[in-house]
Amino acid sequence: MDSILFEKQEASLCAQHALNMLLQGSYFSAVDLAEIAHEMDARESTVMEEDSIRSHNMDDSGFFSVQVISEALKVFNLELIPLNCPNAERYRRDPTLGRAYICNLNEHWFAVRRLGFQWFTLNSLLSTPRLISDTYLSLFFAQLANDGYSIFVVDGELPPCTADDVLSKCPVDPALASRSEPIREDQQQDPDLARAIALSLSKGGDVPFDEDEEMKRALETSRRLLDENDHSLQQAIRESMKEATSQMNDEDEEMDRQLQRALQMSLEDSAYDAGVGTSGFCAATRAREQPAVVRQADCITNTKQCEQSVSSVNVEG
Q1: DSSP type of residue 181
Q2: How far apart are CA 157 and CA 100, in angstroms?
Q3: What is the pLDDT of residues 25-74, one digit of tens each?
Q4: Burial group, residue 55, by CB count within 10 angstroms (0-12, 13-18, 19+)
Q5: Among 56, 110, 219, 236, which one has the highest count of C-beta atoms within 10 angstroms of its own C-beta?
Q6: Where in the sequence numbering do the catalytic residues fall?
Q7: Distance in angstroms (rounded) separating the CA atoms of residues 177 and 55
Q8: Is 296 within a domain?
Q9: Which residues are named in the active-site annotation (predicted)?
Q10: Is 215 among the domain residues?
Q11: What residues form DSSP beta bridges with 151?
Q12: Domain assignment present for 284
């Protein structure tokens, strides 16, 4: 990240630092911005037809208003558009469509810009630029908005810069990028700067965005939910299989019982048919045999009667 122009905080000149880091060049000094502020004060006094001793566009600490920053950017044909403006809807949906942003909270300014194919936070309260991934950029702005920051889209063609060319060819390795830098000792010795840092930190200006840890937690939560769902699915499958198996067993037992009843009924019918056939044969046989016996008996009887008749005739003769 050596190719990136980075200005560290001096007094309360964060607006100057934010502008120069946004444009990636030492284009403005505190004197330049003060002149713009005085010109704007003069125009405002003319319109309002009153002389104001107190400036509304700067103060003695080095703070400059958004009007001064907007006027300075007009030199490069750049325009500031509030992110909550209807004209910035596409940038709200996808911040990566922009090229640069400038943010403000409690008189502190810093820039967010794409250099090459990567996004960087350029905050003079930090010791180095901070890399932000495309996927994390939306969350970054969402947190800033939640903390009360005013966010502006820088609309227009930014001037060419060395860092853009270098990082297009050699992107920064995220593993080597500094994510959380300590406050420098000389910053702690400056009371005004210390108050500005404390105020910015209390409002989210230097929130440590450890993307790796956030991603790990998100992935861990996702894996846990998947495991729970998988366990529930497996349990449901087991219960379903158990119920299906039990139902199949019941059906098999019922089929066995029905088959056994059918076989038993078939055997009973066969036995009945066999019994009827045997008794019928015996009756027929008896019917056939009985007349023969009767006929033989009749013959014997008739013979005896004849003999008696003959004997009777002989006696009479």
Answers
A1: -
A2: 10
A3: 999 999 999 999 988 888 877 766 666 556 678 877 778 899 999 999 99
A4: middle
A5: 110
A6: 14, 108, 123
A7: 41
A8: no
A9: 14, 14 (nucleophile), 108, 108 (proton acceptor), 123
A10: no
A11: 103
A12: no
Tokens (6 digits) for 290: 């009985």
**pLDDT 10s digits, 144-156:** 999 999 999 999 9
Q: How far apart, in whole angstroms, are the C-alpha atoms of residue 291 and residue 78?
A: 138
**Number of helices followed by number of strands (H, E) in the chain:** 9, 6
Helix H or strand E segment including 256? helix 211-316
Return the number of other C-beta atoms located less than 10 Å from residue 176's C-beta.
8
Using the 8-state DSSP alphabet, how is residue 99 labeled? S
**Terminal-to-terminal C-alpha distance of the chain:** 172
* Residue 96: CATH number of its domain: 3.90.70.40
CA-to-CA dists, residue 69 to 22, 32, 201, angstroms: 11, 11, 23
74: DSSP letter: G
The answer to whether residue 99 is domain-embedded is: yes
Strand order in 150-155's β-sheet? 79-82, 150-155, 100-105, 108-115, 118-122, 130-132
Strand (E) or helix (H) holding 141: helix 134-146
By the 8 A CB rule, do 138 and 92 touch?
no
The CA distance from 260 to 130, in Å, is 83
Residue tagged 């939560």 (tokens): 221
Which tokens in the block code for residue 64? 């400059």
Q: What is the pTM of this model?
A: 0.56
What residues contact 217, with CB distance under 8 A and at least 6 apart?
none
Q: Which among 23, 15, 211, 197 has a CA at the least distance from the CA of 110? A: 15
Residue range of the domain that includes 97: 14-209
3-state secondary structure of 130: strand
Q: At what angle do helices 30-48 and 14-23 cross, to 10 degrees?
A: 110
Least confident of 193-202, 256-265, 268-277: 193-202
- Show Cβ contacts of residue 163 under 8 Å, excluding neighbours closer than 6 positions: 3, 4, 5, 24, 115, 116
Number of domains composing the chain: 1
